[in-house]
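hey so i finally got around to running the thing on that chain from the lab meeting. sorry it took forever, my laptop kept dying and i had to restart like 3 times. anyway pasting the input first so we r on the same page abt which one it is
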Amino acid sequence: MNFKKVMIVFRKELMEVFRDKRTLFTTLLLPVILYPVLIVGFNAIMARQSNVLEEQGATVAVCDSVQSAESMRIINDLTKIENFKFIPASDSVQSLYQSKDIQGIVTIRDTINASSLRVYHVYVQYDAANERSNMMYGKIAEALQETEQEMVREKLEISGIDPELVNLVDLRKRDTADSQKKMGMLLGMILPYIMIMMLLTGASVVAADLVAGEKERKTLETLLVAGVRRIDVVIGKYLTIIFMSMVNLIVNLFSISFSLRYMLAQSG
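ok and heres what got predicted. didnt touch it at all, straight out
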């Protein structure tokens, strides 16, 4: 192997790569455009979609099998959810649910536990594969949790027990990680796999141009008769592929880092 001739081939291939606009666009410009559009754009679309779903609300059928003051209170608290409409369940409730005219069915039943206390069971039928139905379940679960806390507090007051006894341990988290640390955690989880994919994709584009592109430009024959051994040509081409793959990797990582930093800063 002649190192000087290898470096001549390497410089020659680099010049050919930088002259090819398609390779430059795919290797250097596309990552700078692609990841901000995908990551930042996708995050913005998801946030907008969430707001749209909340504005649309949901229609929910309610089947109250208890018909007590407590069950009526549960239903009244549910009706306070903004943009939600609750209708009495009819015989055709399952047909309405299957046709997506309603997004869920709430059924209230009760039992007596071992302590002779009446326990209310609220069954929520929803479609976990549907975004609007998932939103509906989350809103109902949040409202029911608040109602349960109020009912427990009232029961304790009636029994002469301080309601604060149920809050003897108050868990509050204090997150000391800033956006940069969170970004580092995310990158640390996915970075090895991303680097492998980037190296392979970056190398494949350059390698294809070094072989097929040289045939199109009809410079391969000139290179082979230039007095350079074939092993020197192969090594020079491999050096070009490795160099451009590393450049592509650095550009990709910079673009991903910028996009994630922006996204975490927007989310606080």
